[in-house]
Design brief:
The chain is built from 14 helices and 28 strands. The chain is α+β, with helices and mostly antiparallel strands and 568 residues long. It folds into 2 domains: 127 residues, no CATH class; 357 residues, Alpha-Beta Barrel (TIM Barrel), CATH 3.20.20.
């Protein structure tokens, strides 16, 4: 049982601590049972919360595993043992303050700690499992609308801690605040996950069951054009019976944030023409946006500086992500911003005619708490706004804290971006972008190996919280640094553990063998993951059922060596 309580808050400008249920600043109605933890805090005076956590002792054995759900969709998520270590920002991120700042934007490095053996933390939910067993014990928050819930362990010192990210929360005297509403569920993994997501969180089976098709990003990045898009659209014809979506990614707009200003040199017929051509093939039409971002050089940032978020500490404009030379973040609590966002989605969905939007860099909205709201409150408000703006059209979330969009978005990325390199090798002709992508500055930057880790260990989210997007796999021979075995392995893992299956290849260049693999990976099969776990530091075993047949995929994460051709 949880016995220790620790909290910090400001009364006026004075930093105060209270480590009891009842004290000078608040009283806490705290109830623990075998299957729940609930806590309602009542402020006795005006106060600004800084931190709140509860702690208990928990015995960890050598075979015990802790599943840590990362801060957002891209953040490394997996099971850890007491001898593992979860590194955050690597030393290269500390070269300068500028590099460290940008490296830390996409994660929780400025308010959580990393790098100690046996110490891990998880957002929204976690579970404990004994190696080799399917029985789990899950702790999970009902909602993150009051703030992110963080489950932390110190496995070396037998400690289990639950924190509420209350930084920024302002409470007036007499005001109540729900600190915790946590379910504790034990049993078979599938039964527990069903009970948590459907019964406790209130998710419904997502409308999207299976999407397979194309996205432009991982071959051309921003260098797309009408000619390229139409060519690659036609290139899918030989696999068309297994294709149902075609998505245009970044590069169609004049600048990030200026979504309604199409680059007419690259897309002279406009984006409605592109959506219409996709529909003629019988596919759903998808398009990418970063709705909270405004590139430094964008028209929207220059003309509306009052729309941009500013740092709490100095009032300077806040950069929300490092892409495109830096991008500011639009403040969703500004009514003009909200009106602009509604106009953008009305145009994209109802005038241009796109069926699905992939929404990226959403975490930028909640880098800092503000307006008396916690990061979790802000992120949930942002997700609600996007849901309202899109109506019943499909949303594919990306770069978003998962707890905020469970049961709200139709689909969501569960991994960081895949890289065009399985691992970096110093070779002649390698470009600078490949080198940069290969360096793991943080737990969110592009990495095929990290993408696979998340895809495997977040498989339980699929069909429960939303439809899983494990990011792309590759089958092409050009502009890629994979072996053929690595390509097939990545495709098989994605098809087993996800249901949003994308390539960025021009399938028109494929031979018959590649078309055959593409159609097989795209096919909507009856997959069920039985168990996924590390066999040693580099080797992962994925046990699953495919159309009623039990199979086991074993692979070396570092080399890509596997038995994949035996289980295809």
């Amino acid at each position: 049982m949880f016995e220790k309580i620790r909290s910090e808050f400001l009364i006026g400008k004075a930093l105060v601590k209270q480590n009891a249920l009842d004290g000078r600043a608040f009283s806490l109605d705290f109830k623990q049972t075998k299957d729940s933890i609930k806590g309602i805090l009542t402020a006795k005076c005006d106060l600004d919360m800084k931190s709140f956590e509860i702690e208990c002792e928990k015995d960890f054995e050598d075979d015990d595993l802790f599943f840590a759900n990362g801060y957002q969709a891209w953040t490394t998520s997996r099971e850890f043992s007491k001898d593992d270590k979860f590194d955050g920002l690597i030393k290269a991120a500390n070269i300068t303050k500028f590099v460290k700042h940008f490296a830390g934007l996409s994660g929780d490095y400025h308010f959580e700690s990393y790098g100690e053996e046996g110490k891990f933390h998880s957002y929204t939910y976690c579970y404990f499992r004994e190696k080799g067993e399917r029985e789990i014990k899950l702790y999970g928050s009902r909602s993150e609308r009051n703030g992110f819930t963080i489950f932390a362990v110190d496995m070396k010192n037998d400690k289990f801690i639950i924190r509420k990210d209350v930084e920024g929360l302002h409470l007036k005297a007499g005001q109540t605040y729900e600190i915790f509403d946590i379910a504790i569920i034990e049993g078979d993994m599938d039964d527990v996950m069903d009970k948590y997501f459907f019964d406790f969180v209130g998710c419904k089976k997502p409308e999207i069951k299976h999407l397979s098709g194309y996205t432009s990003w991982y071959n051309y990045f921003q260098n797309i054009s009408e000619e390229i898009i139409i060519r690659d659209l036609n290139g899918l014809d030989r696999a068309s019976e297994e294709v149902n979506i075609f998505q245009v990614d970044d590069g169609y707009q004049q600048a990030v944030g200026d979504w309604l200003l199409t680059d007419e040199k690259k897309f002279p017929k406009g984006m409605k023409y592109i959506a219409d051509e996709i529909h003629k093939k019988g596919y759903k039409a998808g398009i990418w946006l970063a709705p909270f971002s405004a590139q430094v050089s964008s028209k929207i940032a220059k003309e509306h500086p009052d729309w941009l978020l500013r740092h709490n500490r100095n009032g300077k404009k806040m950069l929300g992500c490092q892409g495109w030379g830096g991008a500011y973040t639009l403040d969703i609590y500004n009514e003009e911003v909200r009106a602009y966002i509604m106009e953008v989605f009305d145009t994209v969905l109802n005038v241009w005619g796109f069926d699905m939007v992939k929404l990226d860099f959403l975490y930028s909205q909640c880098i800092e708490p503000r307006n008396g709201k916690t990061r979790g409150e802000i992120m949930c408000d942002g997700v609600d706004l996007l849901r309202e703006a899109c109506g019943d059209k499909w949303i594919l979330g990306c770069g978003v804290p998962i707890g905020a969009c469970m049961g709200i978005f139709d689909a969501c990325r569960i991994s960081c971006d895949a890289s065009k390199n399985w691992k970096f090798k110093l070779e002649k002709g390698i470009d600078v972008n490949a080198l940069v992508a290969s360096i793991r500055i943080n737990c969110e930057n592009p990495s095929s190996q990290n993408a696979i880790i998340n895809t495997v260990f977040r498989n339980h989210l699929d069909g429960r919280a939303f439809c899983n997007d494990p990011d792309v796999f590759f089958l092409r021979d050009i502009n890629i640094n994979y072996t053929w075995e690595q390509k097939v392995l990545h495709g098989k893992i994605n098809s087993v553990c996800g249901n949003v299956l994308f390539v960025s290849d021009n399938a028109g260049d494929f031979d018959d063998e590649r078309i055959g693999y593409l159609k097989d990976f795209f096919k909507d099969k009856d997959y069920k993951v039985r168990l996924a776990e590390y066999e040693d530091e580099d080797v992962i075993r994925l046990d699953f059922t495919e159309n009623g047949e039990d199979k086991s995929l074993k692979f070396n994460l570092k080399t890509g060596e596997s038995n994949v051709f035996e289980v295809i």
